[in-house]
Amino acid sequence: MPTIPNARRLADLALLALLMGCPLAAGAQDVPTVKIGQATKKTVGTVTATNSGDVACYLTLKDDRGAAFEEMADFEICDQKPPLKGKRVTLTYSLQKVMSDECQGDPACKKTRMVALVSAARIISAGGTTSTAAKPAAQRTSFCTPAETIVFACRTGAKMASVCASKDTGSKATLQYRFGKLDGSEPLEQVLPEGGPVAAARAANGESVPFSGGGGAWLRFRKGQFTYTVYTGIGNWGPKGEKRTKAGLHIEHAGKALATLKCQEEPISLLGPDWFEKVGVKPGTDDFDFPD
To answer: Is the overall model pTM greater than 0.85, yes or no?
Structure first.
């Protein structure tokens, strides 16, 4: 009876499939992830709890396989409306500095650590689309964390350029440029230096310049032959010599201008001789012509 073992094997497999049907069905679903620095992070999950702590907002979630996981997020995500608890969300991350655990919540402590922080959590509706109500990044003033200083923040339409620094001074000061969509629908498009903030003196070059009727300052980050320069200034640039302001992001490749994204509202800026001296930023070898 050679067919009986085969029949029994098929019956056993059928029983096994029946017993494991739910886990296998869940396991068959892919769990989408993204690489942030050295960490691999899940980008979709259902929020089971939110807790605003000393360092960040803490999210507890379950992925589509039912496995629980936790993530640190911007403080505002704990308070966003509608509440996230019980909602399936898509997560956007960025590498950011937060207060070190050694500080034990002491706001005077300057020790920090680098983490992959959830910068946006958008609710996924039953139909699979993301809810427009959950866009906390649209209300943010920068891509900097509470543990960092906003050196420069400029809204350019649906996107924003930010320069974030540690609260240290001198050789301990670190610096990073971040650019991306305000609504957090996608990961940040550009983060320089990549891999995390580095010493301000090595991260960028910058300079203060005098103008007739005012003055300005600029800060430049490099990636290969590309340069990204944030700037702000005031001078007699009007048609009849009246005062005008200039502020934005200027992008070049191999010394040739690619784009100028102007700030659409008053930027946040610490750029100037006092700040440059405080963190050790130097002019470098190249000048910068403020674009019209």
So the answer is: no
